[in-house]
Amino acid sequence: MTQTMENQTIVATTRRQYTMTTLDYGAYQDLVNEKKQILFDKVEAKLGKKSLALITLAFEVSSRSHFKQKRKSGEPYITHPTEVATIVCDWNLDDQTIASAILHDIIEDTEITKTDIEQMFGKSVAELVDGVTKLEKIHFESEEIAHAEYFQKVVLAMSKDIRVILIKLADRLHNMLTLGNMREAKQKQIALETMEIYVPLANKIGLHKVHLQLADESFKYLHPYRYQVLSRAVAESQKKRLPLVETILKNISNSLKSNGVAAQFVYRQRTIYNLYRRMQRRRQSFDRIYDIFEVKVVVENIRDCYLVLGVLHSLYRPLPGKFKDYIAIPKSNGYQSLHSTLMGPHGTPIQLHVRTTAMEDVAENGIISHWIKKGDHFLSATPETTIWINNILDIQSSSFSANEFLNNLKHDLSPSDIYTFTPKGKIILLPNGSTVLDFAYYIHSDIGNHCESARINQYLARLDTKLQNGDIVDITTNENIEPSDDWIQMVVSGKAISKIKHYLKEQKYDEDVSNGIKLINQSLSMLGADITLTDKVLKKLIDKHYPKLDTMALEHAIGNGNISTLTVAKQILEIHSSKVLSIPLSKCEFTINTDTLCSPLPDENLLGSVNRHGELILHKPNCKNARSMGLEKFTLVHIINDIGKEFSVRLSASIANEPGTFSKFASKISESGINILELNQEYKSAETALITATLSVKDLPQAEDLVLTLRNTDFIQKINFL
């Protein structure tokens, strides 16, 4: 049975089961009817009447499910999925994708489930809708993590069916076009998210028009004043420059005709954001940006492209360094064209793009153009997109969290690529700023992990050497070489970053697990407990306090310092979280590490934490350093110095600025039997000098006794702990 027959069977069966009364949208009824009719007319014109049955059912199900839900503008919510479906229809996609676009929010916002959709519309539509459904029914620590998890889900769904990302981009485009009803903070948040992720994503899969629209709408909300100023400047400049462009194109057209070349001319004004980026890259004001129009010469075949280029260069002088051949070496998203900037009449430069009709199709529609050509119900990605999807799946498999995956992916969404070559002539496209290590990891993970050196254009180069367009790179490996922490600073591509991090974490994982067990056992012993970390103890601990973790995950988190060792020890011993832990130094196997800012001492309540290196870190409760690290990492402790260990304490004293007082101060400390580690005097005024002293004491009472003794002298005006 063909896909179309299956759709018709599903629709017929569902219609008998799914009946609904007419929905009354009140004042918005005409608006809903208008948007519905626009969609239906386009579906009928592009796909024929047979597809209307599926689209009609999707609209009815979505209308009923979203009934009484409203957008921020007050309009019925059904207007949004209808508009998204219309955008998808304008892209000439199939009826399943259009139906999925109408239903794309239904699982997220209503009681309808994926199973319900599969029963009504089939598995393919259900998978598409589920692929763009957010994970809001799951609790996340932050909105940032929630979005990272959601985007990771979309990317994984996209790897199975590229139509998922097309629906998502259509959804984001319509949201950006109607963002004005949101509060300002939300507008900027969504616009920034769009600019960082969805704009480069659209560019990466070749959706040029969508890429430009999303970028322009984002720029409008991120920099409203700049957008307004540039819009006015463009409108004013257009009146002056358009006649000149038309004159140049007329001259070019006449020259091409005389050379027997048939060509079409397409020009349009560049978007505001596109012009803004050109101003930034060239560091020029708007009045010096000559190419406010995008001008294209479209011909039938590649031979004519180069013939047109010859005619153009004979007619107008080309500007040196302004020619690019993207036909011979396409961009990573499949874009092909010849770019040349010519010096037109009156000294006005004009940039022209020369390409074939097929290239124009790909340039405008990217991956969608392949859908149109295939004319069937399955969209396969272009070779370039397939490579990129495989690359991001590689990044995903090497990332330990959704947040890390998203951050790594942003590197690979960079719109700027450089073209490098293997010694055998294979083209390797890398993000701008890539190094020898990025190149090695692109070839293969093992080559990256064991990369020792490289030759760039036959010259020996270091691993962190930045590559340039056209470099020929030959990698040398060594099995004894492996990644180190400093390699992260040498790479920019998402794949290299994720692979290095994955290697380092994998190597350290077992070490951290063992370290976690060791730290807990040492902590239990220090607290005088006759117990060790057995499987039984761990199971009880996990069941009560860490139900989302398994045994190794908990041990790993303790070993790498993400979970407080002393807190876990309290939980095992069933000590209340607010109770202060007494720690005799005679039972402490950890190295004591006291903060020099607050100078914590035994016999006072302190903040204590055991780090992954087996150090007992101590701070005073009001210490700024402890607060900056996060108080959740610390536990209240009381250190008992039963071994006579010396601790540093700092004092500040204002003394009379008279001969002999500095010596008297030092003598008083010596008389107390306290060792002076450091003593400094600073002139403050004719009457006062400031002394700072670092002393070695056994505990707080000894330090307090000394301060009391010094306060009772006649030459000290003021003294306190630092």
In words, what does this structure look like?
Mean pLDDT is 83; it is low at 137-141. With 722 residues, the protein is of the alpha+beta class. Among the domains are: 1-122, Hypothetical protein af1432 (Orthogonal Bundle); 225-365, Beta Polymerase, domain 2 (2-Layer Sandwich); 504-640, no CATH class; 647-721, Alpha-Beta Plaits (2-Layer Sandwich), CATH 3.30.70.260. It is built from 28 helices and 19 strands. The longest helix is centred in the middle third of the chain and has 35 residues, at 224-258. The chain is globular, with a radius of gyration of 35 Å. Helix 19 (402-412) packs antiparallel against helix 22. The termini are far apart.
Shape field: globular
Write the CATH homologous superfamily of the domain at 225-365.
Answer: Beta Polymerase, domain 2
Measured as a percent range, the helix fraction is: 40-55%
| Count of individual beta strands | 19
Q: CATH fold name of the domain at 225-365, please?
A: Beta Polymerase, domain 2
Give the percentage of residues in beta strands.
15-25%
Q: What is the CATH domain class of the domain at 225-365?
A: Alpha Beta
Integer average pLDDT: 83
Q: Give the uncertain stretches in residue-range form.
A: 137-141
CATH second-level architecture of the domain at 225-365: 2-Layer Sandwich
* Main sheet specs: 5 strands, mixed
Give the CA-CA distance, first to last residue.
Answer: 84 Å
Quickly give the structural class. Answer: alpha+beta
